């Protein structure tokens, strides 16, 4: 069966443009509309019959789409899965977990299976391919993550950009002039993961006007490799010693701070004597992170709101699209909701003040 991406490729436009032609949520030129319709006719694209069938039944199940490589652990996956499950139960729903790494096709399988009324999507990319699937099938969904097109679907997120900027500004005010921003992995940045790109952008924004220099590095899961990189960034002089040694490390990677202190010890560094460490995205209740200054990830609030948004979309779609094959995409476009949570920098056992030379 042809997909919305097939139609877009045939018409020479973006998948989102095809969605806008169908749901009428954005102005589209007559020439573009004509090309899309010609592609639809040529390919025999008819997604609405399956969407109507899905909306005709109710499962009282919410799917949580949490893409993850087999065997790899992430500190935030478990707390979010539990929090979304609890939120779903409070609303009278069960939770179905899907971990397919093929994000778009994994969601398509769940939507077409009829096993769930709606989905909550994690690991959100800036231009997330699952948004096209949701529009194509008129399948209710909400995101834990802020996409580039903020009006595409309902979403909730921590303001990662402001969190990074806040950390840099506060460290600069405490006397730090050279900092390292330990961002998420190179793989996540290359994949345009939303929280990774927004954090890096925030670190650059925070440095402007403060007189501070922020060097961006990328986290890895191997503690020995983290120690090696820290030694290169914080101890050795890649430029022959002309640059001052960084006195602050901002850690955004959700799992790296669990072994960052051990890695620092292996690199011959102490905190706070040699290096001030600030964590962005610490999980509330994580004792290993509470000793450090941190911006906590509001897991319960994000999970509760995103689940409510997904259920609200499912209810609206079921109750308002009977007999109207094209109403689903229009309704989804009209029921977008957002929750962007402002960060707060919480104190730890160690001060922000820059170590003395």
Automatic annotation (TrEMBL):
Entry GO MF terms: DNA-binding transcription factor activity; transcription cis-regulatory region binding
UniProt-recorded name of the protein: LacI family transcriptional regulator
Limits of the HTH lacI-type domain: 2-56
Keywords: DNA-binding, Transcription, Transcription regulation
SUPFAM superfamilies the UniProt entry points to: lambda repressor-like DNA-binding domains (SSF47413), Periplasmic binding protein-like I (SSF53822)
Pfam family, one: LacI
Keyword match DNA-binding: yes
């Amino acid at each position: 069966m042809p997909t919305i991406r097939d139609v877009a490729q045939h018409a020479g436009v973006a998948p989102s443009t095809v969605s806008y032609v169908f749901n009428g949520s954005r102005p589209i030129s007559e020439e573009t509309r004509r090309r899309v319709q010609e592609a639809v006719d040529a390919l025999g694209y008819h997604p609405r019959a399956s969407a109507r069938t899905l909306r005709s039944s109710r499962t009282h199940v919410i799917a949580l789409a949490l893409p993850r490589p087999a065997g790899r652990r992430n500190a935030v996956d478990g707390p979010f899965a539990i929090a979304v499950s609890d939120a779903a139960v409070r609303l009278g729903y069960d939770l179905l977990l899907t971990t397919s790494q093929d994000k778009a096709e994994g969601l398509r399988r769940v939507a077409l299976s009829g096993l769930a009324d709606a989905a909550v999507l994690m690991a959100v990319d800036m231009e997330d391919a699952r948004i096209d699937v949701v529009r194509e099938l008129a399948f209710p969904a909400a995101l834990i993550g802020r996409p580039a097109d903020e009006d595409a679907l309902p979403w909730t997120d921590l303001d990662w950009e402001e969190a990074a900027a806040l950390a840099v500004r506060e460290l600069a005010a405490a006397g730090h002039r050279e900092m390292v921003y330990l961002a998420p992995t190179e793989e996540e940045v290359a994949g345009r993961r939303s929280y990774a790109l927004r954090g890096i952008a925030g670190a650059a924004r925070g440095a402007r006007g403060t007189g501070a220099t922020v060097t961006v590095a990328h986290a890895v899961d191997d503690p020995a490799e983290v120690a090696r990189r820290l030694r290169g960034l914080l101890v050795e002089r890649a430029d022959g010693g002309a640059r001052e040694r960084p006195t602050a490390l901002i850690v955004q990677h959700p799992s790296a701070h669990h072994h960052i202190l051990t890695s620092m010890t292996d690199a011959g560094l102490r905190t706070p004597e040699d290096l001030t460490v600030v964590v962005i995205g610490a999980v509330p209740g994580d004792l290993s992170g509470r000793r450090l200054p941190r911006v906590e990830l509001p897991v319960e609030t994000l999970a509760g709101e995103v689940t409510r948004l997904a259920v609200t979309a499912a209810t609206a779609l079921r109750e308002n699209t009977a007999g109207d094959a094209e109403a689903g995409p229009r309704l989804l476009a009209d029921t977008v909701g957002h929750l962007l949570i402002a960060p707060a920098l919480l104190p730890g056992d160690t001060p922000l003040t820059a170590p003395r030379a």
